[in-house]
Amino acid sequence: MKIKSLLLGLMAFVLFACPSKEDDVPAGSLNVEASVDGKAWQGSGNSQVTSVAGFTVWAIGAGATDRSNMAFTLDAERTGNFNLNGKALWTTSDQVVHSATSGTLVITKLEGNKASGTFSFKAKPMTGTGPEVSITNGKFTDINISK
């Protein structure tokens, strides 16, 4: 199960590290925000729904100008609650990747090719040691959904 979560997380990272030229989020559009260990963070987000080997994967990601980013891997395109344990990544500007150990994401609005929601999670570094990171007060507004 841990390998499946890691692979889904890496897939989400790849999808957002190589954005499509068709993405219609205007440059500078900061539609994702959160507090990372109490400090304000903002980024531009998009999402991609893909079917892989009979599984639906909805990858949501956002990046900031300092190269930090968040990525979420969900198993369905729907409104409601999602458990983020092993399904969310936080990458610092130094490129240290943290994997969620707990948390939730709630899709509150799903209309056409846009989604909005809230999230919070705690994450630990995937390799080595280091402090746990706390992501709170997260929200995204009208992120694009590509299919």
Q: How many H/I helical runs?
A: 1
Distance between the terminal alpha carbons, to the nearest Å?
26 Å
Strand content: over 45%
Structural class: mainly beta
Helix residue percentage? 10-25%
Largest sheet: 9 strands, mixed
The average pLDDT value, as a whole number, equals 85
> How many DSSP E strands?
9
User: Which regions have little confidence, pLDDT < 50, spanning 5+ residues?
Assistant: 1-28
Q: Determine Rg (CA atoms, Å).
A: 14 Å
Overall 3D form: globular
Count of spatially separate domains:
1
How do the SSEs run, as a string of H and E?
A: HEEEEEEEEE
What order do the helices and strands come in, and which of them pair?
Elements: H1 2-17, E1 32-36, E2 39-52, E3 55-63, E4 69-74, E5 80-83, E6 88-91, E7 97-111, E8 114-125, E9 133-146
Parallel strand pairs: 2-9
Antiparallel strand pairs: 1-2, 1-9, 2-3, 3-4, 4-6, 5-7, 6-7, 7-8, 8-9
Notes on the protein architecture:
This protein is mostly beta strands and 147 residues long. Strands 1, 2, 3, 4, 5, 6, 7, 8 and 9 form a 9-stranded mixed β-sheet that branches.
Write a concise synopsis of the structure shown.
This protein has 147 residues and is mostly beta strands. 11% of the residues lie in helices and 56% in strands. It has one helix spanning 2-17; strands spanning 32-36, 39-52, 55-63, 69-74, 80-83, 88-91, 97-111, 114-125, 133-146.
Task: Throw out a few tags for this protein.
147 residues, mainly beta, 1 helix, 56% strand, globular
